[in-house]
């Protein structure tokens, strides 16, 4: 069936479409209800079904006789190690780990924070939680202790699974001291922690609180302890993943169990065109949604081999690292963020380091996480010689809203567009008043409710915030907070966020959260953070601050303090390196800071004088300051 026919079939009978997709999953109790429109905030999927994600991702493949197939390949240039884990071995690991967690007091519905680097054990930890019906919340390693504490508090975590360290190229990230600090400042202390000791940098464990992973696993094995897959409702949360909102408090995106499996399993064949036994590699991090969906869950649900890569596109050891991994592990489909390709292209413009690697195994490259600039996309196409597919999604959805569905039809790729809407998503473009705009016109991209399976049913313990953030502005629709265009061929073009989120190296960051940190500096009266265009990372945060009257300290000193504060409070991942002092911030007459205009000045883009601006002269002051520091363009 063509894409057009598949999409039309979904639109004509969405429940039938998802009921068919649900057959790809082993249910404990098969759902009779596909969508209950009255359940939850906007309807819930598979409300009377019960299942277990770990069973579907691991055990069922072993039961089907594929225990010897590779489930995980851990490739770690930073520790110079590689490890292969079969499905049978993975089953043994997660059953044992599940029992360890149960012995730590973790039960069904309890929340477990996972704060780990890119090791195979991170995936095992996620699966072990799923096995015993616990709800994990993975925190990206680049976040600082206060961010980790916020998540421990909000999730009400009973336990934490962590590692003694992570390795950033050559720099050791001491996870234990970050974890200790986070627990120190958290209001709700987790009862127990399970720590994976890594040889390069073992940690001192806290007595009475911490268990050593290897010891606990050995003890459970010696006692013959194994956890079975517990039966959970399809609507029980599989995990919470915190993502940036417009304020400092991150949003806890909730993923339900049944719909998540159905949509991800469907996506593997239909979008990525991979099947059981194929090797799939998403070079992201388990801390991000791409890592949840396409390092851990989807490849394993589909019976593929997933590559867990603990390295960078460049520097581990060089810009040929991706080509080595693809050829060495026979990767069929590769998924990463455009920024990774920009980093490689920046260091090896002619892709000379590709020579010597047989990459004939590779059939497609998928890009997401940020807008793919056509130059990078063309470079990748030219050097890889395979289709390069930009696809668009969000933490909130868990899978692509738009793509080129390679398993359905290899539609023409349009550079600058992340493809066409996937079945499940009725994507529309509305003006600010909620009226549809003609094709080719820029507007707010929205998705008609109900959202398809896997998309968030709510925010963790924050239903009002869920409605306010996503549903209230355009009644009947989910607001994506992305602005863009649907063209005459039905392709989407994502142009910008409509909120204060910026995208730095494929990482979603809140300028509001950074402003909250800057505002706490004793000398700062007012501040603003914008995302300035950056050749490598897409955007970089740029801070502006006005000092309190009477402050007479050198600007550089205050700037250095602000940079340190953001690094200590939010983390290195914020990549906040530049702050500039200004006399005043440009505002509307009602006092709203004109961040968009400041960003355009920094990017040397044309802008219209905002009609409601209070004092246009401030814009010239801002330009002068930025020009003086070489920060324009
Ligand atoms: N743990 C601890 N620190 C981390 C981290 C982690 N998991 N990940 C990143 N950091 C640190 C980095 O070391 C860096 O620290 P520094 O300021 O001391 O140098 C800082 O956070 C910023 O990281 P990043 O913005 O990633 O910059 P980088 O220079 O280290 O790497 C790229 C640049 C392009 C190579 C890298 O960003 C990349 O591979 N991006 C792909 C992103 C991605 O996969 N996104 C997921 C969506 S698909
Ligand atoms: P995250 O929730 O971290 O995945 O970030 C989601 C946001 O990243 C989206 O709302 C977009 O702004 C941006 N994004 C993700 N993928 C794409 C893409 N393919 N093209 C343009 N923007 C993208």
Please characterize this protein's 3D structure.
This protein is of the alpha/beta class. It contains 18 helices and 31 strands. Strands 5-4-17-16-18-19-20 form a 7-stranded mixed beta sheet, with helices on both faces. A 5-stranded parallel beta sheet has the order 7-6-8-11-12, sandwiched between helices. Strand 6, helix 5 (120-132) and strand 7 (135-138) form a beta-alpha-beta unit. Helix 4 (87-103) packs across helix 5. Bound molecules: coenzyme A and adenosine monophosphate (AMP). Residues 140-142, 166, 168, 173, 284-285, 288, 290, 312-314, 336-337, 339-340, 343, 368-369, 504-507, 537, 572-573, 575 line the site of coenzyme A (COA).
Produce a short descriptive summary.
Helices cover 32% and strands 23% of the residues. With 633 residues, it is of the alpha/beta class.
What labels would you give this structure?
633 residues, alpha/beta, Rossmann fold, GMP Synthetase, Chain A, domain 3, five-stranded parallel beta sheet, 18 helices, 31 strands, binds adenosine monophosphate
Structural class per helix/strand content? alpha/beta
Give the second-level CATH assignment, the architecture of the domain at 80-230: 3-Layer(aba) Sandwich
What's the CATH C level of the domain at 80-230? Alpha Beta
Distance between the termini: 47 Å
Radius of gyration (Å): 24 Å
Bound small molecules, by name, code or SMILES, are: coenzyme A, adenosine monophosphate
């Amino acid at each position: 069936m063509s894409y057009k026919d598949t999409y039309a079939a979904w639109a004509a009978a969405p429940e039938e479409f998802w009921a068919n997709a649900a057959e790809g999953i082993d249910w404990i109790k098969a759902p009779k209800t596909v969508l209950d429109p009255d359940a939850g905030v906007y309807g819930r999927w598979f409300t009377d079904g019960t299942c277990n994600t770990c069973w579907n991702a691991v055990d069922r493949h072993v039961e089907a006789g594929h225990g010897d197939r590779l489930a995980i390949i851990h490739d770690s240039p930073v520790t110079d190690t590689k490890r292969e884990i079969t499905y049978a071995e993975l089953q043994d690991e997660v059953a044992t780990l599940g029992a360890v967690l149960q012995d730590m007091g973790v039960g069904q519905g309890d929340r477990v924070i996972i704060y780990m680097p890119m090791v195979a054990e991170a995936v095992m930890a996620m699966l072990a939680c799923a096995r015993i019906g616990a709800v994990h919340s993975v925190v990206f390693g680049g976040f600082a202790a206060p961010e980790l504490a916020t998540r421990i508090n909000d999730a009400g975590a009973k336990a934490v699974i962590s590692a003694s360290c992570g390795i950033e190229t050559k720099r050791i990230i001491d996870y234990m001291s970050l974890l200790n600090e986070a627990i120190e400042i958290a209001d709700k202390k987790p009862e127990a922690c399970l720590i994976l000791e890594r040889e390069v940098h073992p940690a001192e464990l806290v007595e009475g609180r911490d268990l050593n992973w290897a010891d606990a696993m050995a003890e459970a094995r010696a006692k013959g302890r194994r956890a079975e897959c517990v039966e959970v409702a399809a609507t029980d949360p599989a995990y919470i993943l915190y993502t940036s909102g417009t304020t400092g408090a991150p949003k806890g995106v909730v993923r339900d169990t049944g719909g998540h499996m159905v949509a991800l399993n469907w996506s593997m064949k239909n979008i990525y065109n991979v099947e059981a036994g194929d090797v799939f590699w998403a070079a992201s991090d388990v801390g991000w949604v791409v890592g949840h969906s396409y390092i851990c869950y989807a490849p394993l649900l589909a019976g593929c081999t997933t590559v867990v890569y603990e390295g960078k596109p460049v520097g581990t050891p060089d810009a040929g690292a991706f080509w080595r991994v693809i050829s060495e592990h026979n990767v069929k489909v590769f998924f990463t963020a455009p920024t990774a390709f920009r980093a490689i292209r920046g260091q090896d413009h002619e892709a000379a380091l590709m020579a010597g690697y047989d990459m004939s195994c590779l059939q497609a490259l998928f890009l997401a996480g940020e807008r793919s600039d056509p130059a990078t996309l063309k470079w990748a196409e030219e050097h890889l010689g395979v289709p390069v597919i930009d696809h668009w999604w969000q933490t909130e959805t868990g899978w692509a809203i738009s793509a080129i569905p390679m398993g359905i039809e290899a539609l023409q790729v349009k550079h600058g567009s992340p493809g066409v809407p996937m079945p499940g998503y009725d994507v529309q473009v509305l003006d600010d008043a909620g009226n549809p705009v003609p094709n080719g016109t820029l507007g707010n991209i929205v998705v008609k409710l109900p959202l398809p399976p896997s998309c968030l049913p709510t925010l963790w313990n924050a239903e009002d915030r869920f409605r306010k953030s996503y549903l209230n502005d355009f009644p009947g629709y989910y607001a994506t907070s992305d602005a863009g265009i649907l063209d005459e061929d039905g392709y989407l073009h994502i142009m910008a966020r409509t909120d204060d989120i910026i995208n730095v190296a494929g990482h979603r960051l809140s300028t509001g959260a950074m402003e909250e940190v800057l505002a706490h500096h004793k000398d700062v009266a007012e501040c603003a953070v914008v995302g300035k265009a950056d050749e490598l990372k897409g955007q970089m945060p740029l801070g502006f601050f006005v000092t309190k009257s009477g402050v007479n300290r050198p600007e550089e000193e205050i700037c250095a303090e602000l940079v340190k504060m953001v690094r200590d409070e939010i983390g290195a991942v914020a990549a906040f390196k530049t702050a500039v002092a200004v006399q005043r911030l440009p505002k509307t007459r009602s006092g709203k800071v004109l961040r968009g205009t400041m960003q355009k000045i920094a990017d040397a883009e044309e802008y219209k004088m905002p009609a409601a601006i209070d004092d246009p002269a401030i814009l010239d002051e801002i330009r002068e300051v930025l020009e003086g520091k070489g920060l324009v363009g």
